[in-house]
Amino acid sequence: MSKNHFETDAVRTQLNRSEFLEHSVPMYVTSSFVFEDAEDMRASFSEEKQRNIYSRFTNPNTSEFVEKICKMEGAEAGYAFATGMAAVFSTFAALLDSGDHIVSARSVFGSTHTLFTKYLPKWNIETSYFKVNEPDKIESLIKPNTKILFAESPTNPAVDVLDLEYLGEIAKKHNLILVIDNCFATPYLQQPIEFGADIVIHSATKLIDGQGRVLGGVAVGRQDLIREIYLFSRNTGPAMSPFNAWVLSKSLETLAVRVEKHCQNAVKLAEFLDKHDKVNFVKYPFLKSHPQYEVARKQMKLGGNIVAFEIKGGIEAGRKFLNNIKMCSLSANLGDTRTIVTHPASTTHSKLSEDDRMEVGISDGLVRVSVGLEHVDDVIKDISQALSS
Ligand SMILES: *Cc1c(COP(=O)(O)O)cnc(C)c1O
After folding, report:
1. Which of 93, 204, 218, 260 has the smallest C-beta neighbourhood within 10 Å, fewest atoms?
2. Together in a domain, 316 and 298
3. pLDDT (tens digit, 9 = 90+) per residue, 314-330?
4. Are residues 300 and 157 in the same domain?
5. Mean pLDDT (whole number) for 102-112
6. Closest Cα partner for 104 from 54, 148, 72?
7. How far apart are CA 314 and CA 366, in angstroms?
8. 100 touches ligand 1 (CB under 6 Å)
9. Contact 335 CB / ligand 1 (< 6 Å)
10. Domain containing residue 280
11. Could you say which of 235, 252, 269 is where a domain stops?
12. Any atom of ligand 1 within 6 Å of the Cβ of 215
């Protein structure tokens, strides 16, 4: 049989039915599993037998979730984590040795950057950074001990886009492991493995759950690398809970329709802001004015749900804008059904110096909107009145 379509795998990938022939998959809320006898136990621990032993290693619900994500990303194997950051940390901790070196985009999720600057150096692992608009500098940063090339695309919060095919070529040429955080795009919009990524990471907390309910993370990719990540994780304990896996596996059934609608709404908001006289510029991957528009069109199915724009009047105007928002939420999450508005310079990134903020594309007036699933006219109405007052 030919391969199923994305939506079909998302809906139809499920565990074998139990004796009750349930239609929807039950939750296996159990910490451990029993053995028939001593021989069964020996064979299971020696991995002669593939089966569930203890839910820190594997659990039916987490396995179902992982299998689905693997199909959607075109990956060989994966492991599910309690949070996106657990997936990021475990990937680096499992794949790197003391003395190894990382080359990463400077614009990465805040906690990932803290991991690079504060924690990995404890194990003598250093990171060199390239600016998203200077990918031609990447090769000059590679050293004999460089092992991982890391990036997110689109980036948070400035919505820059990196050329995944180009990153894949560099990784291959220099024998590096290419790790891509695919959180903003989801596997529905972009599948980095197709462009040469070895490992793809998600914060499932965002669009994969998409309903602001549970935390989760996942890493999928090459079998041999996932094996290392699995062994590290089964011994250190960042596993996803069966309940969260059950929720997230259900969430994946609706990922395609949700993301499709999120993107439709986001384009309309981006076009509205593009013409607004209180706005300096809008950054949205599928607007022609986006600096990496051609790259975005090449590697993404749609532009995603995050719209960034610069409000005229800097920090003060940004703060006023947030205070005038009536319906949209001021929240640290993104990828929710509810539209979320943030102003990084006065909130999440207020501790950074102006120079450091500019390094990651956060100008004083930059506003980030995670466009939700309300009627887009109501979202535009709220943002419009907040810009005018
Ligand atoms: C939120 C986020 C993470 C971290 O995920 P958590 O589930 O919050 O731990 C990592 N990378 C990106 C791009 C994110 O947006």
Report:
1. 260
2. yes
3. 999 999 999 999 999 99
4. no
5. 94
6. 148
7. 8
8. no
9. no
10. 255-388
11. 252
12. yes
Contact 33, 52 (CB under 8 A): yes
CB 274 within 8 A of CB 287: yes
**Closest residue by Cα to residue 365 from 379, 351, 349, 378:** 349
Q: What are 223's two structure tokens?
A: 């079998």
Task: Write the CATH number for 319.
Answer: 3.90.1150.10
Cα 182 to ligand 1 centroid, rounded to whole Å: 10
260 lies in the same domain as 248 = no
Instruction: Determine how many CB atoms are found less than 10 A away from the CB of residue 17.
Output: 11
Query: Could you tell which of 156, 159, 331, 342 is best to mutate to test the pocket of ligand 1, judged by most ligand atoms within 8 Å of the CB?
Result: 156
Averaged pLDDT score across all residues of the chain: 96
Where residue 47 sits, what CATH number does that domain have? 3.40.640.10
In this structure, are 355 and 324 located in the same domain? yes
Output the six-digit token pair for 324.
């005038």
Same domain, 229 and 267: no
Rounded to two decimals, what is the model's pTM? 0.96
Ligand 1 centre from 289 Cα, in Å?
27
Identify whether residues 83 and 180 lie together within a single domain.
yes
Q: 123-148: string of b/e by CB count within 10 Å (b at 16+)?
A: eebebbbbebeebeebeebbeeebbb
Say how many Å lie between the CA of residue 111 and the centre of ligand 1: 8
Residue 268 pLDDT: 98
**Close Cβ partners of 336 (under 8 Å, ≥ 6 residues apart):** 210, 211, 212, 329, 370, 372
Distance from residue 90's CA to the centre of ligand 1 (Å): 14
The two tokens of residue 128 are 């060199």
**Contacts (Cβ under 8 Å, ≥6 apart) of 155:** 105, 107, 108, 132, 161, 162, 184, 360, 361
